[in-house]
Write a structure and sequence with these properties.
Structural class: alpha/beta
Strand content: 15-25%
Number of domains: 1
Number of strands: 13
CATH architecture: Alpha-Beta Barrel
Bound molecules: flavin mononucleotide
Helix content: 25-40%
CATH class: Alpha Beta
Strand order of the largest sheet: 3-4-7-8-9-10-12-13
CATH superfamily: Aldolase class I
């Protein structure tokens, strides 16, 4: 058992949000310092539309490093890319505590954090302090809860982070900011993407190669999926979709004490639903947009299931709560073993033909 496994065990005794803060502080002070390793070249992948080149397809999903404090350390743990945020223009305290719950028996998490973050000013200062050569760093932007013009918040976020990240994510799928998911409705989405697209074009004229992704909820019916796919496909500047955020569903199978808490559910019980939503988007979109799969990944088999459903890369977060940060190395080793077993020479071979 490694020091990190021991630390993961110790941190699990603390209340969930205290454990998270403890982890971030430990990483910041260098208490927990991973030794970077080179990836097996067979894990490298290039996303088709954006051309984004990843050393391996496993990313750290948004919400772990909301304030861009530890992305370099998380890259050193072996993630192929790390997404910081969600950041809002102005600092925001988020919802009252407790607002983060471990559902250990279900290998799941419920959160209703509500975009607690330090705001764009500090975020950009921290991002810009680390050379971009550190690795692939995404900046996930959102809107303040009390904003009069939420779309203007996204535009401000896009413009501020653009020079300092490798890619951007427009997060319109958090269930914890009332009304935010309404931006996924056809008319609202057209307006949002119209204004964000104008900002993206303006920024692109000065600084090239910043793919922009849109992050989507898993709680969508077929009509909503078709609407979103059509609106997204009409934006030549948009790189792709991240599918998905947390769910407001509460599957019957949940057994943990906290299953009735309000918020977004993530982790193992989200795997099937988010993969189904991903496959539904892939059925409409094919490879015309880059799809990044998230929701419930805890193993190499889960990664392969997302790739087979049409993902070109994946992200995870909740599984770290139960398995610690060394999980990503184990998953990569298991992926290489799975490729050996099937005689594959590239991770891209798991994608649908
Ligand atoms: C505590 C917590 C906070 C999160 N915060 C954000 C966030 O700020 N922005 C965002 O786009 N997604 C956020 N997410 C969603 C994750 O990025 C991810 O999409 C979701 O949890 C599904 O992946 P998982 O099952 O591997 O956790 C958060 C998830 C958790 C558990």
């Amino acid at each position: 058992m490694s020091l990190f496994d021991l630390a993961t065990g110790a941190v699990r005794i603390l209340p969930a949000e205290t454990a998270h803060r403890f982890t971030i502080n430990g990483l910041k002070t260098g208490l927990a310092k991973p030794t970077p390793e080179l990836d097996d070249p067979r894990l490298a992948t290039t996303l088709k539309k954006s051309g984004l080149k990843l050393p391996n397809p496993i990313g750290l999903a948004a919400g772990f490093d909301k304030n861009a404090e530890v992305f370099a350390q998380m890259l050193a743990f072996g993630f192929g890319f790390v997404e910081c945020g969600t950041v809002t223009p102005r600092p925001q305290v988020g919802n009252p505590r407790p607002r983060l719950f471990r559902l250990s028996d279900d290998q799941a998490v419920i959160n209703r954090m509500g975009f607690n973050n330090d705001g764009l000013g500090l975020y950009v200062r921290r991002l810009s302090a680390v050379p971009r050569t550190v690795g692939i760093v995404g900046a996930n932007v959102g809107a303040n809860k009390d904003s009069d013009d939420r779309i203007a918040d996204y535009v401000a976020g896009v413009k501020a982070v653009w020079p300092y990240c490798t890619y951007l994510t427009i997060n319109i799928s958090s269930p914890n900011t009332p009304g935010l998911r309404g931006l996924q409705d056809r008319g609202a989405l057209e307006e949002l993407l119209g204004r964000v697209g104008a900002a993206a074009r303006e920024m692109d004229a000065a600084v090239k190669n910043r793919p922009v992704f849109l992050k989507i909820a898993p709680d969508l019916d077929d009509k909503a999926i078709t609407d979103i796919a059509e609106v997204a496909l009409a934006q030549d500047w948009l790189a792709g979709l991240i599918v998905s955020n947390t769910t407001i569903d509460r599957p019957e199978t949940l057994t943990s004490q906290h299953k009735g808490e309000t918020g977004g559910l993530s982790g193992a019980p989200l795997m099937e639903k988010s993969t189904r939503t991903l496959a539904a988007f892939h059925a409409v979109i094919g490879d015309r947009l880059d799809l990044i799969g998230a929701g419930g990944i805890a193993s190499a088999q889960d990664v392969i299931a997302k790739l087979r459903a049409g993902a070109q890369a994946v992200q995870l977060y909740s599984a770290l709560v139960f398995h610690g940060p060394l999980l990503v190395r184990r998953i990569k080793a298991d992926l290489v073993a799975a490729m050996d077993a099937e005689g594959l020479t590239s991770i891209e071979a798991f994608r649908p033909a």
